[in-house]
Amino acid sequence: MTESDMNPRSLRLAELIRLHFDDTQAAFLDVIGGNQGELSLLVKGKKSFGEKKARKIEEKAGLVPMSLDAPAGAPFYASEKVNPKSGATQIETRLNEWSAAAAYNGPGGTSGALESTVGEPLRLRQSRDIPVVGEAQGGPDGYISINDYPAGHGEGWITLYSADPGAYGLRVRGDSMRPRIKSGEHIVVEPGMEAQPGDDVVVKFLDGSAVVKELLWVRDDEVCLGSINNGIPPITRTIDTILSIHRVAAIIPRGSPLYRSAT
Predict the structure, then answer these.
(1) Domain 128-261 falls in which CATH fold?
(2) Is this prediction's pTM over 0.85?
(3) DSSP codes, 223-260
(4) How far apart are CA 17 and CA 230, in angstroms?
(5) Running DSSP on this structure, what letter comes out for residue 55?
(6) In whole angstroms, what is the distance from residue 153 CA to residue 169 CA?
(7) Tell me: the pLDDT tens digits for 177-229?
(8) If you placed Cys at 226, which of 42, 234, 241, 251 could pair as Cys (CB 3.0 to 4.6 Å)?
């Protein structure tokens, strides 16, 4: 299979691993988790690489949304520099320019072709600073303790889009959530967005305990939560024992440019 025959997302995934992970798939899997065989097939263009899979990889790797659909050479990570005229980040400005050019030029790349099969120009949603408000310390049996920082003493910010004005970040400590979430990484939590089965969630119980789990199902007055590290069996709790269920929107790997320290 030649490059021209491959899914463009496969080419972009290979580009990402080459540029940011020393061309090593194992290093990339350390960040997003998953199966080596599946990743290899995706990179080689031998496995279906649909929209849902692309968005999931972008989320787990802390990439700019839609970056696996952007042209070759487009940035994968958000820049902190802001365009003073539009208020858009540098990466948003560049991707919008590429997308508009593609829509104008058409698939053949010849300027002047107003008809295009590309569709509407790509418009990235404006990112913002999401505060990191505390730490999630992993403990036994999948439970965590959440230690909030004192008001006015946050650790830093995560630059990311969120439609939830109450979104917040937590730094993860401990290895009880590996390999999905590793110690030193951050999670972005959206308390105002309804969690769906299959989502990772932060669940706080009325007895003061808390967990980071996968929401498996909600039936009648019960909620079933699955372990994110496959080391602990699922638990089922009645809804009247639960204080809150907050959706985990993103996992931010260590060293990601999306994170900015307050110091």
Answers:
(1) Umud Fragment, subunit A (2.10.109)
(2) no
(3) EEEE-SSSSS--EEEEGGGEEEEEEEEEEE-TT-TTEE
(4) 26
(5) H
(6) 14
(7) 888 899 999 999 999 998 999 999 999 999 999 999 999 999 989 999 998 87
(8) 234
Check residue 2 and report its DSSP letter: -
Helix (H) or strand (E) holding 213: strand 210-219
Give pLDDT tens digits for 27-84.
899 889 888 888 888 888 888 888 888 999 988 888 888 889 888 888 888 743 334 4
**By three-state DSSP, how is residue 66 classified?**
coil
Q: What are 103's two structure tokens? A: 């829509």
Instruction: Report how far residue 43's alpha carbon sits from residue 221's, in angstroms, rounded to the nearest whole number.
Output: 43
Q: How far is the C-alpha of 131 from the C-alpha of 133, rounded, in Å?
A: 6
DSSP structure class, residue 262: -
Residue 137, classed as helix, strand or coil, is strand
Secondary structure element (H or E) that encloses residue 112, with its range: none
Both tokens assigned to 21: 């992970």
